Amino acid sequence: MKGYITVTSMPDRGTTFHIYLPIIEPGEEKARVESIMERQPTTGTECILLVDDEGTILDLQRQILLGLGYSVTTCASSIDALKVFREQPSLFDLVITDMTMPHMTGVQLTEKLLEIRPDIPIIICTGYSDQLNEQKTRALGIRKYLMKPVSRDGLASAIRSCLDYR
User: Fold this and answer.
1) Which domain holds residue 119?
2) What CA–CA distance (Å, rounded) separates 35 from 107?
3) Prior bond to 26 cis, omega within 30?
4) Are residues 54 and 28 part of one domain?
5) What is the pLDDT of residues 52-73, one digit of tens each?
6) Which of 75, 65, 39 lies closest to 163, judged by CA?
7) Who has greater pLDDT, 134 or 54?
8) Contact in structure between 126 and 98 (CB atoms under 8 Å)
9) 95 and 122: one domain?
10) Which of 5, 33, 34, 82 suits 26 as a labelling partner, its CA being 20 to 30 A distant?
């Protein structure tokens, strides 16, 4: 919005927030709304396998994906994800996995998924990894590498990029 916030806090006196927003001139509001509408993320109807051991992140990303129109199967462990994928590998159009998980990392899961189905697009998400970067992930067959926190628009864009690339 091109505004800003200042905060002042004093013990035993309280905290004051000042929020400064730009003035919108008459006629600008419609242009801003149209601009926001143009930036709506792309959607789809494909089936996504979503893997993350953190329940809150799993639920949030699931809601985002459902809101974008995708069918979603969630797994809270990489071992469960591998089992689900083995049972119906052709069901999924894309896999989104966290990097750091117990028992099997996102990279290890990716390797096993690609052994089963070499054409499956995979997106890996991580908060931090000194072992992984975009070049390394591509060499492993991972299509996209996203840093957490992942925005709805960033996720939507990465998904379409992977699916439309095929």
Assistant:
1) 47-165
2) 38
3) no
4) no
5) 999 999 999 999 999 999 999 9
6) 65
7) 54
8) yes
9) yes
10) 5
Q: Are 162 and 138 in contact (CB under 8 A)?
A: no
pLDDT band at residue 34 under the 50/70/90 scheme: low
Same domain, 33 and 90: no
Nearest to 152 by CA among 75, 61, 35: 61
Q: At what angle do helices 78-87 and 106-116 cross, to 10 degrees?
A: 10
Helices (H) and strands (E) counted in the chain, each on its own, are: 6, 7
Q: Judge if 16 and 79 occupy the same domain.
A: no
Q: Which CATH number fits the domain that encloses residue 78?
A: 3.40.50.2300
* Spatial distance between the Cα atoms of 145 and 114, rounded to a whole number of angstroms: 16
- Specify burial of residue 36 (Cβ count, 10 A radius: 0-12, 13-18, 19+): exposed
Please choose, from the candidates 89, 110, 85, 86, the residue with its C-alpha nearest in 3D space to the C-alpha of residue 99.
110
User: Cα separation of 103 and 100, whole Å?
Assistant: 10
- 39 or 43, higher pLDDT: 43
Going by C-beta distance under 8 Å and a sequence separation of 6 or more, which residues neighbour residue 118? Answer: 141
